[in-house]
Amino acid sequence: MSIAKLKSVKAIAESRVIEMQDASLDIWDKKYRLKDKQMQPVDIDIDATYSRVAKALASVEDEQQRALWQDRFEWALNHGAIPAGRIISNAGAQAYKPATSTINCTVSGIVPDSMQGILERNLEAGLTLKAGCGIGYEFSTLRPKGAYVSGAGAYTSGPLSFMDIFDKMCFTVSSAGGRRGAQMATFDVSHPDVFDFVRAKREDGRLRQFNLSLLITEEFIQAVRDNSEWDLTFPVTAKEVDGGLDIKGDNIVWKAFPTTEGYVKNKQGLVACRIYETIRAQKLWNAIMSSTYDFAEPGFILIDEVNKNNNNWFCEDIRATNPCGEQPLPPYGSCLLGSVNLTKFVRNPFTEAAYFDWDQYTEVIAIFTRMLDNVVEINGLPLEGQRAEIEYKRRHGMGFLGLGSAITMLRMTYGDAESLEFTERVSRDMAVAGLQTGLELAREKGPAPIMNDAFKVTAEMLFKQPDLAKDGIKVGAKIAGKVLLGKYSRYMQQIAEVAPQLVEELIEEGCRFSHHTSIAPTGTISLSLANNVSNGIEPSFAHHYARNVIREGRKTKEKVDVYSYELLAYRTLINPQAMPFSAEPGQALPDYFVSSENIMPRQHVDIQAAAQKWIDSSISKTINVPTDCDYEDFKDIYLYAAEKGLKGCTTFRFNPEAFQGVLVKEQDLENTTYSFTLEDGSSVEFKGNEEVEYDGEMHTAANLFDALKEGYYGKF
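RE: above sequence
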């Protein structure tokens, strides 16, 4: 990358500045602003935060080049590059909080089916959370409820009871800083306790420090479509076989499993599994969808799609993700994230002359890619396994935020044909520009170690990628990682269709990292540093709504009013009188001002599919549906997502009988009545948005009700 290229890009300033809203500045102050032990600000303003981060990321460059790269990094940060929260909070902060990490999240090692193994993973998780990282786990490696434990001479209480331990640990560690702990639990759709997992959050206060996602296989999706039977299974142990169990009987099937240790396996590496129960696939699907409708969980991860399209397909078996699902990761894998604010590249917004500045966009991507790669050197991860994994593969996940806002500013409508074409190009250009920088960095600093290591070809690899056999490659051959990734990963084969010369050079020289792109949810980042542009790949939730935030010292969540960035921009640049929902001629917004409440679920999926084609990890996507969405219209959303080739997604529908979401529309609160029982047995009722004085503090009725019901009142 040349200095000349950077200097040739001229930022186009808007005629008027869109002022930061109070909520945005407040969240920056509470979550990302560096403060000393006395809680006095070290960062004077947001520019100072960016300068601190740029200096920290430039510190790993050659001494003679540090000032140059710090300047470039600051330029990128002021032109749309936004590293993830842990980088913003912790980069350059070692003098004030040396035990924190710049990595947002990790994935646990495989959870062994033993008391010692479970508790060891719990300890590792506690240390990870203490460092400020979220964490994901797969819990379907644990034997089902009621299974006999020979060592203890007793019957196990099952995976869910052990998840309760992790849940309490997470709340204890994270609550010290007033921040909700971030955990993801994945669970195989064929595990005998799958119904318990699906229904877990129907119990008040249970597993609230977890996001829950099912590992959905292509086989299960087909069984649902065919209305056929589905086996619930779990491996039999070698001890059981030694004791006389017949593994040739009708009650045994052979399946892939995350670990073979202690189990019976065949030559293909498949594990003998006992069939505990056979059910109708539709029965389980209905349980999944009804729980999702009521409680917004579980989400789903199409795990076969994840593994088939993994760049590291030849050496990874992925079973877990980071807490928001955009980074499917191997054991001890880490989620190093950053997002580009797309609204920064919209010129002449809301006018017929509106356009997207593709040149500046790709320049920011190139610089930002180097920034994220530098984060690997200052990762601050607490476990040796985590550090080894990130240094070996150097994977990161660059994505974007503000897609919905940018679409509106360009006078498109989220989900229409023009917006789909725009979304695909945004993703494709990010991928190609990032990989080009990955090649340049490999030439300058060396490729990721995985690129030059030789991997022995196995029968399993030939099965996964038939192109190996077509090229005459046989079992036992040794092939460099850069070839297996660049030539034989399905994703890079697709990149080769638009950038063939780049891919040829990557195969020859390797890349600085194994993965480059993913799209995070960016909730607080979008609200704070980006002035409430739309989250990640989402449309704006609404143009005026409330966000529930955790405040240290408060007994309930605090309701904060916020406005969408595009509304603020439209008021500043076009019409100061514009109002959401207004029908008055001088106040009405244009028709292209849409939000989650008037976008069909399939349009959400279509946008995600357009982006996923060029994203080498995954996408955190929440399909927001109206509160009054009919269940029959809702229940096939995930099947449509599978049809479109997504790796996963989640849904959200406001349900006052369940619990409060982070984002809440005023009309939902206005239309919901909450009843409280007093000490004398009488009851009082309030609308959800009414202010209630309780225990010497003012609360919204909705947040007070939620805190008392869920059991977190006064625990922040």
